[in-house]
Amino acid sequence: MQIICISRxxxxxxxxxxxxxxxxxxxxxxxxxxxxxxAIKDGIHVxxxxxxxxxxxxFSERLAVExxxxxxxxxxxxxxxxxxGRLVYHGRTGHLLLPGVSHVLRLRxxxxxxxxxxxxxxxxxxxHEKAVKYIEDVDEDWNRxxxxxxxxxxxxxxxxxxxVNLEQMSVDNAVAxxxxxxxxxxxxxxxxxxxxxxxxxxxxRTRLALARDERTSGAGFKVWSQNGSVSLTYLPxxxxxxxxxxxxxxxxxxxxxxxxxMASTNILWIQETFDANSEAYxxxxxxANKWNAAVELxxxxxxxxxxxxxxxxxxxxVKSGVSEVPAEYNGGIEDDxxxxxxxxxxxxxxxxxxxxxxxxxxxxxxxxxxxxxxKSISKSNPYTLVVxxxxxxxxxxxxxxxxxxxxxxxxxxxxxxxxxxxxxxKAQYLFGVRDVFKLVxxxxxxxxxxxxxxxxxxxxxxxxxxxxxxxxxxxxxAVSVAVFLFVPFIAYTYGNVAKSLMKLINME
Length: 508
Hints:
Helix content is 49%, strand content 16%. By secondary structure, it is an alpha/beta fold.
């Protein structure tokens, strides 16, 4: 059941090499084009996903779920074909669908740009300038696809076992060399790699079953499998569909045990404008990953921009800042896609990035103040943390700080969760260099105190019992003051050690 995955760019010669290699080895041959066609027949809108890579502004939460569906389908389809016998797959990055499977030989096929340009000119009837532009555009599109789908670079040499350059080597000679490589013991199936592949396939089939059932198709899931035991998590916003999960999963064969759990909670992030490349975004996502939480975005602004939008918002009106993708679309790449017309302060881009990492909890826009904000927040969502970022940006520094503190106090009184500003976020919930020094310093103090206590027990007992220096009222008063000061001191230092250790091991 060996698998050879060949990553090839357009007009690189990889398709021809894959077909000849499969023929020489007597392996089945599967192309990405065949798999995409099967995915479209399964109801996956691959064309829309492709377009989302080219126009990131149309990437919505629904497309994020579609992306999960496509990855699950591709993994299951590839595993099913491999179980039928030995297989050569050629496409973009099929090996990334099978992480940890050691009997996958991962190949990258390249050739010179000029050779690819000449091939494009010959097969597409383009002149040289247009052929160069075509190759550059396709390479860029494929890079975007791989980056969005797998969060890695298509050109990263570290993810391949071997790179074959066909600029000077003929396809036949390359195939002759690869036949020997394919027969090396390093790329033969072992019980461990077979088990890993079975777990990947089982998790993919489970996710696929959830995507195909209309009761659970709109929800996002993270699915894992280990030795036939499947577990999954879903976000709090999808809790209403949890009753259907066991019934849907029961239709998947070969599952020994199954468990489902809701993601821990939601993190509410309130800000005037969002930037998916900012440090605050990275910190919020890092905490969401640590806590297995969804991030819900609320854009709070004072309404000045509302006059410029198509539908002016009165104070207190809650408006959606996320453009909806039309419900009906075909599987092909569409030429024209409407861009969002509403200025949303970067919230659409932030939601798209959150959706890409499986942490989107939705979002909306609030034009108004603290009372309008609280009216817009769902009371049914369990929040573990509320983060107040940059708000009231049109005000002076002092006024902005005062208004932010008042908003923090107002929200704290009405939501049973810690409410912090973005400046406080890293200090309180992320373990950094500062925490290392803090942990070491307090730990040294605690160790010194305990060392002194345990090595001087007799004089300490005499002092505490009041028999030191003959007793008397002054001694008893000194003992009381010492105990009064020592207990809070050791509690404070020991508490800071425990708090830093809990931050370090993600148990805030």
